[in-house]
Backbone:
């Protein structure tokens, strides 16, 4: 605007001087022809010059205004870009906040009461690696008739005695110790319920699995499923747990194998089902099973389930008084002299592996042991083999 004002002042000044141009002399006399032509020529040149200067001035003003407009537009655009950057940063900040909130939401799982350590765990050695060494006694006693046997000291992490304790076997229903552990580490509400399905009932019947006795359509608490998996070795309870936790047995088995990997046992152990049904690809060693039981005894909830002698399930429409179940291994061995107390146990049986058993004992001097055997000809023989091993190798 200021430049246009200067332009009009310039034109006005020029016109002012142009108006002073006339065709008389100062004394009033008329110009001669030559003088007139000379002055007329000057007048024409001056007007052309003025026109050219005016034109140049206008062009300069237009160019200047255009440049100024572009600069102003760019200056106005830059704050917008900055705003976009700020908005992007704010969005990024908000995303970061959301991510932090997600982490906080996941924290309860890390501090779940179902992941708490048992009191006994503080006495155990760290890790899940035990080697059978030259200091490990060979179990040659005629009182131990199981084909495979192993005793591990949990306090110092040594293999006390072994008879083919690192040979691959099918763990049968000892598998359910890992089923219990994986389920306990992933549940969020022990009082939640799961409805027994026809498919699970058919599966258990088809494979001739032991069962708690839950009926199709019965709503069973997670706690009842945990105890039902261990005490009577219920295939129905184990299957219900698997589907409750993972949605299917297949997905749950993946979780079981992940746990084996976490424990460092995946090189010698691999499971294909959550019950212990025989499968060539379902295997572990007695040492693997001892470490699985160690991990379970380190978990407070699993420890409580494994040491229970008798348990009655919750009242349901199908079972108004609940179902009373027992851990017969513990009940049968508790009056035997093992130089301590057997505080947890799980049995198993398949034809290919005979009668199996894994037990946890606290000796009279406070030492913690795990004994695992396989391929006994009866459940009672399995128990007596554990008694003989504890009697021979614990104080």
Residues:
């Amino acid at each position: 605007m200021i430049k246009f004002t200067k332009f009009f002042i310039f034109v006005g000044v020029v016109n002012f001087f142009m108006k002073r141009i006339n065709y008389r002399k100062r004394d009033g006399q008329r110009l001669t022809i030559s003088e007139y032509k000379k002055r007329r020529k000057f007048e024409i040149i001056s007007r052309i010059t003025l026109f050219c200067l005016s034109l140049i001035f206008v062009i300069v003003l237009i160019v200047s205004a255009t440049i100024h407009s572009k600069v102003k537009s760019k200056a106005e655009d830059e704050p917008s870009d900055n705003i976009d950057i700020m908005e992007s940063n704010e969005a990024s900040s908000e995303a970061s906040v959301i991510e932090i909130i997600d982490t906080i939401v996941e924290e309860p799982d890390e501090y779940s009461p179902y992941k708490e350590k048992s009191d006994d765990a503080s006495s155990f050695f760290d890790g899940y690696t035990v080697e059978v060494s030259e200091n490990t006694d060979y179990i040659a006693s005629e009182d131990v008739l199981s084909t495979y046997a192993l005793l591990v000291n949990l306090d110092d992490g040594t293999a006390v005695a072994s008879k083919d304790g690192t040979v691959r076997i099918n763990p049968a229903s000892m598998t359910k110790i890992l089923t219990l552990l994986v389920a306990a580490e992933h549940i969020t509400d022990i009082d939640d319920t799961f409805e027994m399905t026809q498919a699970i009932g058919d599966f258990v019947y088809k494979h001739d699995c032991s069962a708690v006795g839950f009926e199709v359509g019965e709503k069973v608490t997670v706690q009842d499923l945990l105890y039902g998996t261990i005490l009577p070795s219920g295939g129905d309870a184990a299957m219900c747990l698997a589907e409750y936790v993972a949605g299917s047995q297949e997905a749950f088995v993946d979780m079981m194998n992940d746990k084996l990997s976490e424990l460092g046992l995946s090189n010698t152990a691999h499971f294909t089902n959550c019950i212990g049904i025989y499968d060539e690809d379902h295997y572990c060693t007695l040492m693997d099973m001892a470490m699985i039981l160690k991990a379970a005894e380190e978990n407070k909830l699993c420890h409580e389930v494994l040491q229970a002698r008798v348990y009655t399930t919750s009242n349901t429409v199908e079972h108004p008084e609940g179902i009373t179940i027992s851990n017969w291994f513990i009940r049968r061995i508790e009056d035997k002299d093992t130089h301590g107390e057997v505080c947890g146990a799980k049995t198993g049986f398949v034809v290919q592996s005979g009668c199996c058993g894994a037990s946890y004992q606290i000796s009279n001097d406070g030492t913690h042991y795990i004994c695992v055997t396989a391929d006994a000809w009866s459940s009672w023989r399995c128990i007596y083999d554990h008694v003989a091993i504890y009697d021979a190798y614990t104080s």
Remarks:
- Residues 2-94 form one domain.
- The longest strand covers residues 340-350.
- Strands lie at 137-138, 148-153, 158-163, 193-195, 219-221, 310-312, 324-326, 340-350, 354-363, 368-376.
- The chain has two domains: 2-94, 123-393.
